Amino acid sequence: MSIALTSPAAPTSTRQEKLRVMVVDDSVVIRGMISRWIGAEPDMEVAASLRTGLDAVNQIERVNPDVAVLDIEMPELDGISALPQLLAKKRNLIIIMASTLTRRNAEISFKALSLGASDYIPKPESTREAGAADIFHHDLIQKIRHLGAKVRRTVSHASPSLAPVLAREATARPAAAPVAQTQLMRRPFGMLAPRVLLIGSSTGGPQALMSLVTEIGPVIDRFPVLITQHMPPTFTTILAEHLARSSRRPAREAVDGEIVRAGQIYLAPGGRHMRVVRHGADAAIALDDGPPVNFCKPAVDPLFTSAIDVWQGGVMSVILTGMGSDGMRGGKDIVAAGGSVIAQDEATSVVWGMPGAAANAGICAAILPLNQIAPKLIRLFSGDRS
């Protein structure tokens, strides 16, 4: 599981501006714990604490929450069944799915994303595990805060008639943005032809990744693609399967020691950092169980930095939507070695933390809407240097 303690908190709101959070879970212990955490935050409040999805559907119009933390397994009406009904009644509702780390729940969480959930969060197996509970606490509060801020910014800049539509679109599958950030400094793309594609992502990443790999088949066929997505074990297994289906190319969790080949997508397995090392004339995967980097595990920076020793200036990196700043330091190293960084723009990012950190650091050669990244990569890997 990943956390991003470096991500800046949204400015503290006035009481009238507090994020209203609806907690829906059949466990009274979990409901109480999450409610206490939310109540302790100055910029959010508990709008309702409910036992079933049916309760949530029946009360959402009265409660009018900004964010719902929705359990998957509940009596009467489970989370995946309640999800579309909640969105039908409040289109701009931020829904964070919560589930334990099982393959079934991971599959359901991915289905929930396709149905309009904004994000997911794995619950610890036991709340008595202090470390796991602390990570869950921090991750949940950060997701509520940043996703809530995203939809509020969208609504506040929209006309009253368009606000609900734009709010929902802000947290759905990222679409085309009108304009990329033109005011931020760009640097030229590296002069060397790229030999590998590295991608880092976090919150909103699964949807963005599946959209991207669908469009970059010509790159995957000729070059290796390595991805670090902030995600726990089991979830990365499912994500790799989804990436394989979306790309129609081989995609799986990386295996320690395997040789990196073109035509393959390698995904960092949950809970382990993925690096690359030299292996004779080849590159090989190196997984490790070291401490979190940027409070994340797996983290993007170890992959980015390690690739320089193998491919020098032939590294093309992409930083997609996500909280925190992971990838920025590794991106600096890539640029210093002669490689290039592309960042997803703010308008199509669910959270513009990671790509925003890279963009504001002045290390990006391009800052693009999600739907423009694939065409750009295809041109660059075909020899275009601009």
Automatic annotation (TrEMBL):
Highest taxon, organism lineage: Bacteria
Domain CheB-type methylesterase: 188-384
EC number(s) given by UniProt: 3.1.1.61, 3.5.1.44
Listed CDD domains: CheB_Rec, REC_CheB-like
Pfam families: CheB_methylest, Response_reg
Catalytic activity: [protein]-L-glutamate 5-O-methyl ester + H2O = L-glutamyl-[protein] + methanol + H(+); L-glutaminyl-[protein] + H2O = L-glutamyl-[protein] + NH4(+)
Modified residues (4-aspartylphosphate): D71
GO molecular function, one term: protein-glutamine glutaminase activity
Protein keywords: Chemotaxis, Cytoplasm, Hydrolase, Phosphoprotein
Cell compartments where the protein resides: Cytoplasm
Every Response regulatory domain range: 20-138
A Gene Ontology biological process term: chemotaxis
Post-translational modification (record): Phosphorylated by CheA. Phosphorylation of the N-terminal regulatory domain activates the methylesterase activity.
HAMAP family: CheB_chemtxs
Domain notes from UniProt: Contains a C-terminal catalytic domain, and an N-terminal region which modulates catalytic activity.
Entry function: Involved in chemotaxis. Part of a chemotaxis signal transduction system that modulates chemotaxis in response to various stimuli. Catalyzes the demethylation of specific methylglutamate residues introduced into the chemoreceptors (methyl-accepting chemotaxis proteins or MCP) by CheR. Also mediates the irreversible deamidation of specific glutamine residues to glutamic acid.
Designated name of the protein: Protein-glutamate methylesterase/protein-glutamine glutaminase
Species for this entry: Bradyrhizobium lablabi
Gene that this polypeptide is encoded by: cheB
